[in-house]
Specification:
alpha/beta, 7-stranded mixed sheet, 6 helices, about 30% strand, globular
């Protein structure tokens, strides 16, 4: 069974300052000294979680995408996180899965945070993404998606890891710390969840609480409050063992998710 080495960066983000964020992120990532397979950044890592799309939205061939490719080449690994993308008259909170060879996958956030008027600013995605890396099947999700277990339910073909990038405020951190282990246990998979830290431009504080939880709900990694760059390894054998001992997934309901239509 394969082992996956993951580097998470629970970063402080400078509000709506792409140039400063990309420079700081690159500087901090430069301290990575061991080979890693995957670097994970928070939601909207280049700007912070903002509705200011008129000034900050980028097209797919612009600065942040090029920065991601540069970092993937530098570390010879996949790098992922979400950013603001404009495309065909719409704006998306889009996760990019960037490979060193310049090829990439994309996932547009399905569940838009109405309380923050994200649903009035961005267009929701309708397609779940499963990517493969070193024999692992990985399902990326973005922040608010974590609250919707039907969307993330592990149905055939099963994924091995749920990956959540987020800008989740401290005032609801108890929900975050509850939902992540729940998703791991119910889907019999690892969950790697990466949040930001610090205050944003609306004076909302983010306490981080980034973590990795194994298929049995045990904590592999957890970090509150401080900016943190951390590398750890997880074993696919743990996933296989959990499903072999407790074959719960085979008893799950079957269902079909319909297209999400904005009304």
């Amino acid at each position: 069974m394969s082992t996956l080495k993951i580097t998470t960066f629970q970063a402080y983000l400078f509000w709506e300052n792409r140039e400063k964020n990309l420079k700081n992120l690159a500087l901090r990532l430069s301290s990575i000294r061991e080979k890693t397979d995957l670097i994970v950044l928070p939601e909207m890592f280049s700007t912070g979680f903002t509705m200011n799309v008129s000034e900050l939205a980028e097209e797919m061939n612009q600065a942040t995408m090029q920065w991601m490719h540069d970092q993937a080449v530098k570390f010879d690994c996949v790098i992922t996180g979400s950013l603001i993308i404009k495309e065909k008259g719409n704006c998306y909170n889009r996760l990019i899965w960037m490979r060193p060879d310049g090829t990439f996958e994309k996932y547009d956030k399905r569940h838009l945070f109405g309380l923050g008027k994200e649903d009035e600013t961005y267009t929701a995605g309708n397609k779940r993404l499963i990517v493969e890396l070193n024999g692992w099947k990985i399902c990326p999700a973005i922040c608010y998606d974590l609250r919707f277990p039907v969307w993330l339910r592990n149905t055939e073909p099963y994924y091995d890891m749920l990956l959540v990038v987020a800008s989740w405020p401290e005032r609801r951190s108890q929900h975050w710390r509850t939902l992540i282990p729940a998703r791991a246990v119910e889907n019999q998979c690892f969950v790697v969840a990466v949040n930001r830290v610090g205050h944003d431009g609306n004076e909302v504080y983010h306490s981080g609480d980034s973590m990795c939880i194994d298929p049995n709900g045990n904590t592999v990694y957890y970090k509150p409050n401080d900016e943190d760059l951390y590398t750890f390894s997880i074993s696919k054998e743990e996933v296989a063992k959990a499903r072999r001992i407790y074959p719960f997934l085979r008893d799950a309901d079957t269902f079909k998710i319909t297209e999400k239509v904005k009304t």
